[in-house]
Amino acid sequence: MATKTRTAADGKVQAYDPIWSEIRREAASAMTAEPALGSFIYATLLSHDRLEDAICHRLAQRLAHSEVDGVLINQTFQGVLEKRPELGGIFRADLAAVFDRDPACNRYIDPLLYFKGFHALVTHRFANALWHDGRRDFALFLQSQSSRTFNVDIHPAAKFGQGIMLDHATGIVVGETAVVGNNCSFLHGVTLGGSGKETGDRHPKIGESVLIGAGAKVLGNITVGDGSRVAAGSVVLAAVPAHVTVAGVPAKIVGSAGCAEPALEMEQTWVDDFGGL
């Protein structure tokens, strides 16, 4: 997160942003190692003064459409940030989540430049802000473009906490009234969906630090408690208590979650009472 420091020379307060400083260092190193991408890396990262501006630029590039160009998308995102500067801290928490939890991620610039899970999540954060500002058509346009570009379909009204990782992300679907707590991790193919044609509050409520494995489906207005794990390929149709592991079709409790915060540990194997896998 950005903090403020005071320089001895002039007494001015200057922003100290360790993640952005590290991104700029990584970008300079990447330009040296891969000169063919130098102009791309410079235009996307080093030409900007803030992480927020780099994110707006990168997403506008990826979401641009023949009828809604990248300049307009970038301007719209900047307008959202003017009204909601707190989004900058949330972006940093999401970046840190990927860096800390994904063993394939060794640099902050990896999700910022390349990972569609991070791109889809930040696109949703902009869409959600626009939805609540009454700009629902632009929000739905962003949802549509995110689905087309990233193969991630999150309704603009869905609520996400911070420190979220969408790992690989392909095929993730999240419905309109879903709520996701802080520090959760989803793998590809996860669905937070309804269970029929009912209207109103009809989608899952996911607690904090929950890990949902690849291909898992959580259906209906049910809760998944804090610190729980949903095993890959499971279909969850009933409420899940806190700090347990559920698995199967339909999912049943098979043991404890194994740790206090499964989404941070990313451990997806289960050891039974006899010590076997």
UniProtKB/TrEMBL annotation:
Pathway: Amino-acid biosynthesis; L-cysteine biosynthesis; L-cysteine from L-serine: step 1/2. GO terms for cellular component: cytoplasm. SMART domains: SATase_N. The keyword Repeat applies. One of its GO terms (molecular function) is serine O-acetyltransferase activity. InterPro entries: Hexapep (IPR001451), Hexapep_transf_CS (IPR018357), LbH_SAT (IPR045304), Ser_AcTrfase_N (IPR010493), Ser_AcTrfase_N_sf (IPR042122), Ser_O-AcTrfase (IPR005881), Serine_acetyltransferase (IPR053376), Trimer_LpxA-like_sf (IPR011004). Belongs to the transferase hexapeptide repeat family. This is Serine acetyltransferase. It comes from Hyphomicrobium album. The gene is cysE.
